[in-house]
């Protein structure tokens, strides 16, 4: 075997394959160039998913004859000069290889002008071979036409997918740059239709609603942070709008990037596994703190480790979400209290489940109803609040199990005696301490036979079935800790769907619920209530 240096021609073709992989990566490079040139409007036109033609027209600063001649040569760039420049890149491009790579593998025509007298130049390169450079009429800015991508590398052309598939990838790419550049107008068209025509909007939310609709924007919470070393604007799904499949798009200094650790970290925000929110992160940071030159297509970035990303960002978001919850709670309580009739004091009772001494005095709240024996519908100042009776009660019990210090035991007139199967018995042994801590009084009579003499007073509903339910659920858990146990107890002993509630029960539930730090989510992360504002209704009825 003999090692030979590869001919330059081959090296270029290999490199071209790294940068330009398909029509969408070509579109990406060209959009980046237009943005770097200071364009305020970018028009993109593609035929056959970009396989036949990609045309990108911008109103940026343009190129003169000399630059036009140079830009298609390998490693030519106006963006960096010295090695130190690599450390602080403010532009999207810097590798100086996109246009030369495209020139090698397509029929590339670039028209450009740096003045508004329509005096420009055009250059044409076919499969890397320069055909002409001549004057042409062109407004200030640049138009790049890429025809027959990979015509000179048939092996690559074979790997391109259907036009529909290539178009989908192009739409995704343009959508990303449109999201992070709301001050630029984007037009995306195919031979068949206009995909979108975006106007100038003033901020990210304007763009999100232009692209995905006003209603979608309402499903998101906006969080902003102005820090010393970094700042960001982030949009995250409100928990009640989380769908099965989520979209997560991250930008740093407007550059889209992909990072699995960010995805995983954002999925911990709403705690439970099935909570995968949509996230749009627009992060801004001193370019010296990131390395964008770790991927040939610049799809990944590396952050300086002292920044502690992504968890630092996730923690900020969590705290801000908590603050927002607190404010929302205060606002809701204020709105609700306005309607409590002071003179109308009643006795609170959780249906038949209440124990005499548990009765407390509460004002009666009139404007609430039970729907389908499942939801409590409450009218308040701004609209309607729909509360899931089970999750609400579950949350109340869970919080008390976690927070209370002195648990009282309610002794049963008729102790419950249970015979357990071996695995049930050992599950019970595993949780016995946690049960006793919250007020259970349980005696082991003989091997695998137990007698429940007392239950925690704060549990309103208990039976042999509930005890078995709890044991069954915990038996399946891989890890049993007190939190799990209390979640199960709360879930199994709470009011269920189908339980009929009286007005006073519902009032009591509401009062206890709003006394919690976080009344909005159950221990499993599901929403406890959904708010429908009158404004929303008015809008939907076209008022
Ligand atoms: P890079 O963007 O990494 O510098 P490219 O090969 O993408 O490398 O582009 C080479 C050079 O061509 C750029 O540095 C820029 O000076 C010029 N250029 C490319 N596209 C445009 C454009 N749309 N408007 C003005 N100048 C451009
Ligand atoms: Mg470039």
Round the mean pLDDT to the nearest integer and report it: 87
- Beta-strand portion reads 25-35%
Low-pLDDT segments: 339-361
**Radius of gyration, whole Å:** 32 Å
Oligomer: single chain
Structural class: alpha+beta
Bound molecules: adenosine-5'-diphosphate, magnesium ion
Helix amount, in percent?
Answer: 25-40%
Total beta-strand segments: 24
Question: Which strand order does the major sheet show?
Answer: 5-4-3-6-2-1-7-8
Tell me the number of helical segments per DSSP (H or I, 4 or more residues long).
16
What gross morphology would you assign?
elongated
| Amino-to-carboxy terminus distance | 80 Å
Largest sheet: 8 strands, mixed
Topology at a glance:
Elements: H1 8-19, H2 23-36, E1 41-47, E2 53-58, H3 65-71, H4 98-105, E3 107-113, E4 119-126, E5 129-137, E6 141-147, H5 154-159, H6 163-180, E7 185-190, E8 194-198, H7 204-212, H8 214-218, E9 220-226, E10 230-237, E11 248-252, E12 255-257, H9 260-266, E13 279-285, E14 290-291, E15 302-303, H10 311-337, E16 341-347, E17 361-364, E18 368-371, E19 375-380, E20 383-388, H11 389-403, E21 409-419, H12 422-437, E22 441-446, E23 449-456, H13 464-476, H14 482-493, H15 503-514, E24 529-533, H16 534-540
Parallel strand pairs: 1-7, 11-13
Antiparallel strand pairs: 1-2, 2-6, 3-4, 3-6, 4-5, 7-8, 9-10, 10-13, 11-12, 14-15, 16-17, 18-19, 19-20, 20-24, 21-23, 22-23
Helix pairs in contact: 1-4, 2-6, 6-7, 11-14, 11-15, 12-13, 13-14
């Amino acid at each position: 075997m003999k090692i030979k240096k590869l001919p330059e021609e081959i090296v270029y073709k290999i490199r071209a394959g790294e940068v330009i992989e398909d029509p969408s990566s070509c579109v990406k490079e060209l959009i980046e160039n237009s943005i770097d040139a200071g364009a305020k409007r970018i028009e993109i036109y593609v035929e056959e998913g970009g396989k036949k033609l990609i045309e990108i027209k911008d109103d940026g600063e343009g190129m003169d004859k000399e630059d036009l001649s140079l830009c298609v040569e390998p490693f030519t760039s106006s963006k960096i000069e010295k090695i130190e420049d690599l450390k602080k890149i403010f532009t999207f491009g810097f590798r100086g290889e996109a246009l030369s790579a495209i020139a090698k593998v397509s029929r590339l025509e670039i028209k450009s002008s740096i003045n508004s007298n329509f005096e420009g130049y055009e250059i044409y390169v076919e499969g890397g071979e320069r055909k002409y450079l001549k004057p042409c009429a062109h407004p200030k800015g640049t138009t790049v036409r890429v025809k027959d991508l990979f015509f000179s590398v048939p092996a690559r052309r074979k790997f391109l997918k259907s036009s529909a598939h290539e178009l989908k990838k192009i739409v995704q790419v343009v959508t990303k740059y449109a999201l992070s550049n709301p001050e630029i107008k984007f037009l995306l068209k195919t031979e068949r239709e206009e995909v979108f025509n975006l106007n100038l909007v003033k901020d990210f939310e304007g763009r999100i609603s232009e692209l995905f609709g006003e209603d979608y924007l309402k499903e998101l919470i906006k969080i902003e942070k102005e820090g010393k070393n970094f700042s960001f604007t982030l949009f995250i799904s409100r928990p009640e709008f989380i769908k099965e499949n989520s979209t997560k798009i991250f930008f740093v200094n407007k550059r889209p990037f992909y990072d699995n650790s960010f995805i995983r970290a954002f999925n911990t925000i709403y705690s439970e596994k099935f909570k995968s929110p949509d996230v749009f992160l627009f992060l801004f940071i001193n370019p010296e703190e990131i390395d964008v030159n770790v991927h040939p297509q610049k799809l990944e970035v590396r952050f300086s480790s002292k920044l502690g990303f992504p968890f630092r960002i996730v923690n900020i978001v969590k705290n801000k979400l908590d603050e927002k919850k607190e404010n929302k709670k205060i606002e809701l309580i204020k709105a609700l209290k306005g309607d409590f009739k002071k003179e109308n004091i009643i006795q609170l009772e959780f249906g038949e489940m209440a124990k005499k001494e548990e009765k407390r005095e509460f004002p009666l709240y009139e404007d609430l109803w039970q729907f389908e024996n499942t939801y409590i519908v409450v009218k308040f100042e701004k609209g309607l609040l729909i509360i899931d009776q089970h999750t609400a009660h579950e949350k109340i019990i869970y919080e008390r199990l976690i927070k209370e210090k002195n648990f009282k035991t309610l002794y049963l007139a008729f102790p419950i005696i249970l015979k357990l199967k071996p695995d049930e018995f050992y599950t019970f042994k595993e949780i016995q301490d946690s049960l006793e801590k919250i007020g259970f009084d349980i005696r082991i009579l003989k091997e695998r036979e137990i007698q429940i003499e007392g239950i925690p007073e704060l549990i309103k509903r208990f039976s042999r079935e509930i005890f078995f339910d709890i044991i069954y659920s915990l038996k399946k858990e891989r890890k049993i800790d007190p939190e799990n146990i209390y979640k199960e107890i709360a879930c199994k002993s709470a009011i269920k769907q189908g339980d009929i509630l009286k007005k006073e029960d519902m009032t009591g539930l509401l009062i206890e619920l709003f006394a919690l730090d976080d009344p909005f989510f159950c221990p499993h992360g599901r929403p406890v209530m959904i708010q429908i504002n009158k404004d929303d209704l008015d809008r939907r009825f076209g008022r």
